[in-house]
Every structure is written in C-alpha cells, then in structure tokens.
Specification:
Layout (H helix, E strand, L loop, with lengths): L7 E3 L6 E6 L1 H8 L4 H9 L9 E6 L2 E7 L12 H6 L3 E5 L7 H7 L17 E5 L2 H22 L7 H14 L3 E6 H7 L1 H7 L9 E7 L6 E6 L1 E5 L8 H4 L7 H16 L4 E11 L11 E2 L7 E2 L7 H14 L4 E6 L3 H7 L5 E4 L2 H13 L5 E2 L17 E2 L8 H10 L7 E6 L3 E2 L9 E2 L4 H12 L1
Parallel strand pairs: 1-6, 2-4, 2-5, 5-6, 9-11, 9-14, 10-11, 13-17, 14-18, 15-16
Antiparallel strand pairs: 3-4, 7-8, 8-11, 12-13, 15-18, 19-20
C-alpha cells in the first residue's frame, strides 16, 4: 500500500521538516521573510538559488531546508532528487504546493545497487509527504520499473544469463496470471534459427531461448513489446577488445526495458493484449560459434550473410520481430542496446528513436519531453537499404562502410516486420557513465517512461 511505502507517504499532518523551494528570481523576496541569523546561515552556505543547491537553515530548536529549482511552479522529475540523496533520514514536506513529477526523482535518487557489497548502506529513508495521494502509486510504479531495469543491467553476466531473464519473466507471469512460453533446444534451432545460431556457443546453463509472455483480454488491441536479451557480448569470433567487453553485461538492457514495461502494463490493467518477447542469448566463443561469412536462415525465410559476428543483436531481434508480427498486432515496440553508432551520434543520454509512422514518433517524443525521458528521432531512410546488400544472400547483417550505422541497423530490423504494422524501435544505451541527481552511474532506463506514457495515452 502507498501509505506504507518508506519513501513517499500521504500527508496527513504528521511531523516533518519543511522544504522551501526558490529560484534565483525569487531568492531576494524569500530572504526578506527570514530573520537575520537565518539570512546569515544562507549566506554562510553560499546559497544563491542554483538548481540542485540547498541550505540548512536553523529555526529555533529545529531547522528547515531551502532548495534551488529552475521553476518552483513547474517541478521536473529530478529537481528534488539531490535532496533525497543528501538530506538526513527523516520526513519532509514542501511548504508550497505538492511535488508532482518530482516524486519520481525522490525515489530514484535513493536507489542503491549493493548486492555484492559486504557493507551495505545503513542510513535510513528520506520520506516525502504529499497530498497528491492518487499520484503516489503511479510514481512508485514508474520508480520500481526503473529500479528493475537498473538491477537487471547492473547484475554481472555470471548471475544474469538467459535462464535468469527467463526467471524474471516467469515471476511476472505468475504475479499477473499470464501465459509463459519458452522455446529452446532443437525447436529453437528449427523455428528461430538466428536466435539459436547467435547463442549456440554458450555453455548449456546459458543456452539460447525465446521467452514469450502473453497477457490480457484477447478482445483488446494487441501490442507486442520486444527486448534484445544478449546477456553478454564477447563479439563472437569478431571478438571485441577488452575495453569493448567491459560493459557488455548491459547488452541485455533492451530485455530489461521490455520486462519493466510489461510489468507496468500488467500492474495497471491496461486494456491491451500484451505479447512480450525476449530473445535471450550469450554471444560466446567456442568451436561451434557462428562465423563471419556464414549464411543463416531466419524465421522469416530471409537468408542473412554474416558480415560481422558482433552485429548479433539485430539477428536475434529479426527472429523475434518476425514472431511478433505473425499475430498481427496493431503496434510493435522494441528496445535494444543495438549500435555504438547511436551513441556516437547522440551520446549516452538520448536513445535513438526510429518509427515507421510520423504520428508515433511525435507521440513518443512529446511524451518523453513531458516526463523528462527524452529521445531523438533518426531516419529510416530507404536510400541506405543498399548498405545491407549481400552477394550470396538476401541481406548482410553488417555494412562494410561506417556510415549511418544506427539507421542501417534499424533498416535491417524493418525487413523482418510485416508491412503496415506501426513499429517503434529504441536504440538505447541503458547505462549512465556518470551520476546525475536521481540517476546514479550504472544501468538505467532510457525510453521506458516515454513509451509507458504513450501506451497510457493510446489505451488508458
């Protein structure tokens, strides 16, 4: 229940420390309401109303907080997150107004990944009170989905392989009375040959599989959510350098996003027929690893020449997207840590967004701006399809030239989808190389909340 949550609680007048929000423009007027010692305390802490800055001000035997924000009348998701990281444990309330969007950052700012640490953080919780009781559950659900992505991505590959992704899907299915199907072994090789080929070199405990979950009323609109689940990417026989492998535990970040979005959909009871698909593999090296120059069959019947074994994510997604399209959903959404080219173009904070429909792109971009989860649209330009030509097969999985890598990868995926289906693809980093308020260094959800807001707008 929301009123028992340790980080956000309904404001019923309980004792709490006050937080005053000010911006640079309003700081002078605010200081006029303070006593001389309080003004001196602000000056001593060099508080000037900058965003994320704060000061502790004495008030008799107690104290209150003054925090700088860009606009006290329009709080962002992250404007209180720094406070949630640094204030002493206790309960707090805003003096004027309610936190609104800032509820999310208050929770995500207190996220810690300490699974492998002997000395776990022992400080108590910072509790934020709000009279917006109806907003609590929504904020907690989105924060929990974000934490799920972070936990899955931060977990090393030894403890987060295909079997562990399957276990996550199984737990979701049991919690929400959904149907779970897992295809592996000879059946996987026969029906999803590209998924099998990419993952077949992994040890038996990390064998490749396609994980599917279905939930919801069959009469409701059918949607598919697909996530790339490469639990570790060595690059295959086109092996990565050690520096390139260091973060490859995060190559299942697309699967983490898909699982988290599925949980949001099911927890909320969204009126859709959900089809979740996670192709889960480890791109390992062994005597039976797939090779450069091999030609793979695909579920779609399209033959694919392997130009680079390190372009494996698009192969497993090709089979999964084909399966998703067979049931004729009205919308397919996929997440993948697909290309370094997207990171070179947009940096770590902006997922590259590709869509077939302009209206879908606009909806996702607007939703992202509204909830502080931005992305940037890149083109699915037909002129680049020639980069995927093969001399011996229908497609090559890797272009020999270095141009437009993110667009070329998206065009590869597009070939495995039926015409006429609305489709959106996030090429997301799923990682933060440096901490920001509410967003610690490590695995993170990028594009998740924007997608959730779009689905709520369409089907809620």
């Amino acid at each position: 229940m929301s009123d028992k949550h340790t980080l956000i609680q309904p404001d019923r007048g309980q004792q709490a420390t006050a937080i005053h929000l000010v911006d640079k423009k309003g700081l002078e007027d605010f200081t006029k309401t303070l006593s001389a010692p309080q003004r001196a305390a602000l000056a001593a802490q060099r508080f000037e109303g900058d965003g994320y800055a704060h000061a502790i001000v004495p008030d008799g035997d107690a104290w209150f907080v003054v925090a700088g924000v860009a606009d006290p009348a329009k709080l962002s998701s992250w404007c209180l997150a720094k406070l949630a990281e640094v204030l002493p444990a206790g309960s707090y309330r805003l003096v004027d107004g309610d936190p609104g969007a800032a509820l999310l950052g208050w929770v995500t700012g207190q996220y810690r990944f300490d699974r492998y640490k002997a000395d776990k953080a022992k400080e108590g919780a910072r509790v934020l009170l709000t009279k917006e009781v109806k907003a609590i559950d929504a904020a907690l659900a989105e924060a929990a989905a974000t934490a799920l992505v972070r936990d899955l991505v931060n977990t090393p590959a030894e403890d987060m392989g295909p079997a562990e992704l399957e276990a996550q899907a199984e737990a979701l299915a049991k919690a929400h009375n959904a149907e779970l199907r897992v295809t592996r072994g000879d059946v996987l090789e026969r029906e999803y040959p590209m998924i099998h080929a990419v993952g077949r070199a992994a040890e038996r405990a990390k064998a490749p599989r396609l994980i599917e979950l279905e939930w919801g009323d069959a009469q409701h609109p059918r949607i598919a959510v697909v996530g790339k689940g490469v639990c570790f990417d060595s690059g295959g026989l086109d092996i990565k350098p050690s520096s390139g492998m260091l973060l490859m535990k995060k190559d299942m970040g697309g699967a983490a996003h898909a699982l988290a979005l599925a949980r949001l959909i099911m927890e909320s009871g969204l009126k859709v027929r959900l089809h979740l698909l996670v192709p889960a593999v480890e791109n390992a090296i062994a005597g039976n690893a797939f090779r450069p120059g091999d030609v793979l069959r695909s579920r779609a019947g399209i033959s694919v020449e392997i130009g680079n074994t390190d372009a494996e994510g698009r192969l497993i997604l090709g089979d999964a997207l084909t399966r998703a399209g067979e049931d004729k959903p009205e919308f397919i959404l996929d997440f993948a840590t697909l290309t370094g080219a997207a990171r070179s173009a947009l940096g770590p904070d902006l997922p590259a967004l590709f869509t077939r429909e302009d209206a879908t792109a606009e909806g996702l971009l607007q939703a992202g701006e509204a909830c502080d989860d931005p992305s940037w649209r890149l083109p699915l330009w037909n002129g680049y399809r020639e980069y995927l030509k093969s001399d011996v097969a229908d497609l090559n999985n890797s272009s020999p030239n270095p141009y437009a890598g993110a667009s070329v990868a998206a065009l590869f995926l597009d070939r495995f989808l039926p015409e006429g289906i609305d489709w959106a693809h996030f090429d997301t980093f799923a990682w933060r190389p440096a901490s920001k308020p509410g967003r610690p260094k490590g695995g993170d959800a990028l594009g998740l909340r924007a997608s959730w807001k779009l689905l709520q707008a369409r089907y809620g």
